[in-house]
Specification:
four-stranded antiparallel beta sheet; alpha+beta; 17% strand; 4 strands; ATP binding; 7 helices; Alpha-Beta Plaits; binds adenosine-5'-diphosphate
């Protein structure tokens, strides 16, 4: 059954470049309700596990280094059709291919440093949310 929640991270580049406010504004203007949110930092083990699906890719080491180099904003978002609609709002992985009006078009600087994460399925949204938040931190 489809859920109405997805999980996002404002990645270290988005935080470093001062875009927390701008990105959260696009998220709320896009009709998403913030269910949970925190400033936190991934450990190397966290990032390796999070991106384990990419372990054999040439950019894996660079990705883990990038994702652990500074704080991130982790959040759970709610909206009808949340996973798919949020993927639309963030835009293509490569900002060169991201549509106008998307978060990555506005804030991403490269394929790797692309400002924001969005879960790719309801199943992963639930796993990623539970990794970061206890039940009492979800509202
Ligand atoms: P998405 O985040 O759009 O779901 P993927 O799951 O394919 O994209 O990749 C996860 C993350 O890995 C991307 O958001 C990006 O930060 C990084 N990444 C993907 N492909 C590359 C690449 N070719 N070079 C560098 N980093 C990459």
């Amino acid at each position: 059954m489809a859920t109405n929640r997805t999980f996002t991270m404002i990645k270290p580049d988005g935080v470093e470049n001062g875009h927390i406010g701008g990105i959260l504004n696009m998220i709320t203007e896009g009709g998403f309700r913030i269910v949970a949110m925190k400033l936190t930092q991934l450990t190397v083990a966290d990032a390796k596990a999070f991106y384990a699906v990419h372990a054999e890719r040439p950019f894996y080491g660079e990705l883990v280094e990038f994702m652990t180099r500074g704080p991130i904003v982790a959040a759970i978002l709610e909206k009808e059709n949340a996973v798919e609609d949020f993927r639309t709002l963030i835009g293509a992985t490569n900002p060169a291919n991201a549509a106008e009006g998307t978060i990555r078009k506005k804030y991403a600087t490269s394929m790797g440093e692309n400002a924001v994460h969005g879960s790719d399925s309801d199943e992963n949204a639930a796993i990623e949310s539970a990794f970061h938040f206890a039940g009492r931190e979800m509202f």
